[in-house]
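Ticket reopened. Same input as before:
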Amino acid sequence: MDFAEKENTLPKLLRRNYLKYGLKVGIREKKMGIWQNYSWAEYYERVKHLCLSFISMGLMPGDRVSILAENKPHAYWFELAVHSNRGVVVGVFADCTPSEVEYYVVHSESRFVVCQDQEQVDKVLEIKNRIPDVQKIIYWDPKGLWNYSDPLLINMDQMIELGKSYEREHPNLFEEKVSSTKENDLALFFYSSGTTGKPKAAMVTHQVLIGMAEALNDVDHFKEHEEYLSFLPIAWISEQLAGVGCSLVCGLRTNFPEKPETVQENIREIGPHFVFFGPRLWESLIRTIQVKILNSDLINRLFYNAALRIGYRTVDYSMSKKRPSFFWSLLYLLADKFVFRPLRDNLGLNKTHVCYTGGAALSPDVIKYFHAIGVNVKQVYGSSEIGTVACHRNFDIKPETCGPPLSNVDIKISDNGEILVRTPNMFSGYYKEEEKTAKAMSDGWYHTGDFGFLDKDGHLIVMDRMDDLLTLAGGHKFSPQFCEIQLRFSPYIKDVLAIARENETFIGALVNIDLANVGQWAEVHQIPYTTFSDLSQKPQVIDLVRQEIVRINGILPNYSRIKKFINLHKEFDPDEAEMTRTRKLRRTFVEERFSQMVEAIFSDKEELEVISQITYQDGRISTTKSVVEINQV
Amino acid sequence: MEVKGELKLKVEHLTLSFGSLQALRDVSFEVYGNEILALIGPNGAGKTSLLNCISGFYQPQEGIILFSGEDISRLSPAKRAQKGISRTFQNIELYTGLTTLDNLMAARHIYIKYGPIAGGFFFGKARQEEIKHRRIVEGIIDLLEIEEIRYKVVDSLAYGLRKRVDLGRALTLEPNLLLLDEPMAGMNVEEKEDIARFILDVHELKHIPIIIVEHDMGVVMDISHRVVVLDFGGKIADGTPNEIKQNQKVIRAYLGK
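Engineering reply: fixed in the latest deploy. New output:
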């Protein structure tokens, strides 16, 4: 069904939906313990008044506005308000530090900064003197801000009042502005996570974002008013595409959770039809199930394990395109009715017909698990620069791949194995970085920087970043990511860094144990512990991790097997810049930061004293000292 | 900084003894409408005893306590709660076995008008009252950011969160005077910052005087307007945080003579 017709910008789509759906619910937000509804009409009115307010404060077409917020409807309202006057939105991750915020605001030359609450406002006020171009700092949650009197501050209610009085003086101005928006207007800047060098801003137009949403709709055929749960950061292309894009193009209802910590509960309450989570959340869902099963009684465990075996067998049949026998089909029906349906209900995933995972690789084991229990998890491959490029199609899912390319996308592999993409939904380059843009594009093909290949069915397999591949002694190409995602399937391993050296014959691993699950395991086995550092170095925990590694080694190729590992004394932390805000490990940075441990792994040492620097949430710095064991497998 | 406001609490010549042990010796001080008053002193100085006298758990042998001009010295703890004096406890005395929400709703009981029959059948008026109280409790849950533990039984919560629920319960009483007994005991740096921020939020939003017993000098210096110092049951100093920091008697009390 062709939704977009002639509405070729996001504001025009909003207007179309307002005229078409009026008082039907377009947005829901859980606030004060209950779900509050906003109709498309209320959505439109709010955007109108905010847009007029921006205009009265001097926002011009092409101006950039940064938004620092978690997933809240207000972020969508402000975004559309900026778009309606042909402005550009720069999404900033809510957990960025003040200096990171300064970088994004200054580099994008933002004239306004929209903040969710006191936490974000404080960050911006801290860097106030270094962002002189910013005219106003806008916020909507007044908690804690009652006594702030900085003249730069203005809250959303005040803006709406301004907008209403501006409307009285200039009736119909908003409708004219919406009509004047053009499909080639820049809509968004997506700053890359900066795994290498300073973050670059990929510029994306309305046409491209809408094109990406339509491409997704072509695969999944959304129906209007289906429920979508907004979870991924709004600074991320995935959320802009699935959340803003698909909701406007297809008329989906967007549901905003109460807080990131209440998401699992909120999913249960909404029962969404469409979700898009990062690999970490899918992995953590499995871990939650595994721990709950471990804690339940014998009967439940028996039923669950039996059902899972049936589930996996059925998945094997469907993934190898064979039909299961009547007997197995019947067994699956029973397993579904008594085990999987209640399980899915508990997770809130009973109604979902589209579950995407993207942003980083998800282990095939995780994908198979969810299919076994009846959740249609599909991998998506893409980036801010090229949108969605490949994704799994229903009933044709090969878990190790990312599915075939979308119909209007061409993929080819360069001579050195790099994935090159050509798509009509291409970004407009990196802001103020012509050289880097030229480097990434050649002859209309975008260089993804990823190493991969197309299998015999034309499905794309993405192995790793080109820069992270290592050639080992013996000429084998080693992909650390491949090794790591296998290990992360274990409930006890939250994160892991696989390290290799060119002249070494084995792989080492720095393991970040999962505190919740390992803690639970320790309690069950009556092993007392105090802190994360203490737990990670317990000999029994080291043995536990060793067993997991031995198991995974069994499915890895010989040259890729882990021979030595260290349980880290502290968790990987984006605040320490060890991970990006999207939870991808900054490989080179981490290897440098933990260089002593890396050296120790490739030496004969059995233990190492580590002194690390920790940055508290308020910026204070202190050091900790621990002793870590270097363990053989 | 001058934040006085009207005189809310006046404690005069309070003396409390347990047999031959004198917990408080002739303690007098005042608390004004808009201030955060920190009550500090070495261990055993009598700080919790003083709070217990104000909230009515202990009956001092001598002295009077005036709250908004009224003598409350003979009132029971329940009556003092109804007057608007609310407190948290060093040992967090929450209702174990109940969820966070239940603990907070229970604190609304002094305002609930419906009786057991209306409540049992949940008629129109009872339902409306319940909604009203729930809205107020949700406001406090939002203020203290404890949405994710709304339905969790309090026994299963971590220490820091239980302290927050205790603070929430004190707030649902809609107090005119808030007594906090070591709200930050046992917390790490980040947890202390969170609680300090909540205390300041409460102070800004509700405009009520807060008496806080605290050991962390950093917190005391940062958030209180005035400080009263006790030592061996007697008041040895009373002034702004800066004045107290330089007061010789206080320094000697902490470091020992």
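The mean pLDDT of chain B is 89. Chain B touches chain A at residues 134-135, 138-139, 141-143, 145, 147-148, 150, 189-190, 193, 197, 200-201, 204-205 (CB under 8 Å). Please confirm and we'll close it.
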